[in-house]
What we know:
Elements: H1 6-35, H2 45-52, H3 59-64, E1 69-74, H4 89-99, E2 103-109, H5 115-118, H6 127-142, E3 149-153, H7 159-168, E4 175-177, H8 189-200, H9 206-216, H10 228-238, H11 254-269, H12 278-281, H13 284-297, H14 303-313, H15 320-329, H16 344-349, H17 352-362, E5 383-388, E6 391-396, E7 419-424, E8 427-432, E9 442-450, H18 453-461, E10 469-473, H19 478-481, H20 490-498, E11 503-507, E12 520-525, E13 542-546, E14 551-554, H21 579-584, H22 594-598
Parallel strand pairs: 1-2, 1-3, 3-4, 9-10, 10-11, 11-12
Antiparallel strand pairs: 5-6, 7-8, 8-12, 9-13, 13-14
Keywords: 4Fe-4S, Carbohydrate metabolism, Gluconate utilization, Iron, Iron-sulfur, Lyase, Metal-binding
EC number: 4.2.1.12
Pfam family, one: ILVD_EDD_N
Amino acid sequence: xxxxxxxxxxxxxxxxxxxxxxxxxxxxxxxxxxxxxxxxxxxxxxxxxxxxxxxxxxxxxxxxxxxxxxxxxxxxxxxxxxxxxxxxxxxxxxxxxxxxxxxxxxxxxxxxxxxxxxxxxxxxxxxxxxxxxxxxxxxxxxxxxxxxxxxxxxxxxxxxxxxxxxxxxxxxxxxxxxxxxxxxxxxxxxxxxxxxxxxxxxxxxxxxxxxxxxxxxxxxxxxxxxxxxxxxxxxxxxxxxxxxxxxxxxxxxxxxxxxxxxxxxxxxxxxxxxxxxxxxxxxxxxxxxxxxxxxxxxxxxxxxxxxxxxxxxxxxxxxxxxxxxxxxxxxxxxxxxxxxxxxxxxxxxxxxxxxxxxxxxxxxxxxxxxxxxxxxxxxxxxxxxxxxxxxxxxxxxxxxxxxxxxxxxxxxxxxxxxxxxxxxxxxxxxxxxxxxxxxxxxxxxxxxxxxxxxxxxxxxxxxxxxxxxxxxxxxxxxxxxxxxxxxxxxxxxxxxxxxxxxxxxxxxxxxxxxxxxxxxxxxxxxxxxxxxxxxxxxxxxxxxxxxxxxxxxxxxxxxxxxxxxxxxxxxxxxxxxxxxxxxxxxxxxxxxxxxxxxxxx
Length: 601
């Protein structure tokens, strides 16, 4: 690619070189898996009978042989609004498959947690490890070896990374992600944020808060703020794993149906394609594209963990130095709530992913020459889907429809992508600058150390944090308690900041994909458990967090201190069942994956 930006080229080549042994081993495994994939005419008749028994309408076609069989792995449940539309998908997808001379079966289901339901609750400690559970569930589904391609039905936070990690272990098969789209816009996000802060200050009651929240999250479809779920959809577009333009088309529309039909027809057409197998689509360049898209759109900080984990599942080694260096070159092209006023529906209406991809390709900031599920390169993803007499059609996007939300690479909101690596004697961490005013990028203040979220809330209510303060919340890493999101800290810390105090958060836990205006060093590694640096901090130690020069440090003499004792893990809400996951999890920068760590990947 002749016009590729020097930094994009440099980081890509570094990742390729670093990944040579692991990528080679992965592709060799996938080639062996493809070579030993069963010819069903040679498979035991008893085996086939078991597989075909439930496929009443397709048994004759399956028995005759020759028709590709598409395995559907679904994360459907109707507690999770984004996944509620998937309930009827399998029966429709079977019809679409028959149209293309294929068959389809639900190969298996996976869990699907809603982090919005578990925020601030004990169940959040299962959230990150649900990703690896989903990956293993995908592996169980595909282990039956009855499929020529895979349709992956999932959208939200840990679900897309988990589905991809699992499907990559069957990467000799073609695979396409099939989203269902966002719910219509509800209460404006800034208004929702305002009511949350008023509630944190005790100025409105629970009834007002619930009314505001239900006005925001009100119907089937993905939540409309640009958090981890919608960042997932962006990345699948950037990696070429969707039908182009699929990410943000609302459920129940004719265009949504046309895109879903196209996905099934395309899976039937890709049967036997080694060049478009998932293993070949998800390579070093595709991983770089995912990271570039994350930076260009101000996406979820959770993907600083998920991208390395997804990459490792494909034999690619990607770290936070790579992410930070890419961020220095990739301009911020989008401002979507919580980084702006409008939501993903407004983003899509203004030009959406087609506009972003077109700008990145034109500026040499993304790899055009990747294998996609749709075409020979990423160019088709710079177009906008529509209908022509009910048939799927594509058109040029044109200029941004709203320059308060989408800007060209030549005139971005910010010259960099807003994700910085900070490091020092407190470890390495991520800082999302795109959501924080530049005047708050440097905070130096005495710290107050906590070991859980309720203690922070209690100190806030007691007025103990009404000062310049760095709030440290430790023992929140993957091996301590599963690395929960700490999103419930955002409203009280935001209140302190609005009162004029210099406030920051430092934690080995995660923040939500909706990380907001308070400066935060998150995903601190090494984590506090096992005598990590955060375990040696004491109340009153001066901590400096600076995104401008990449600093996370304390002036305290940590070398001559004893670390705080590791807390015992809590039981209840199923947390005890994940003890093995906590024990084997590796660091946040490696993806915090017990599955990949235990497999030696």
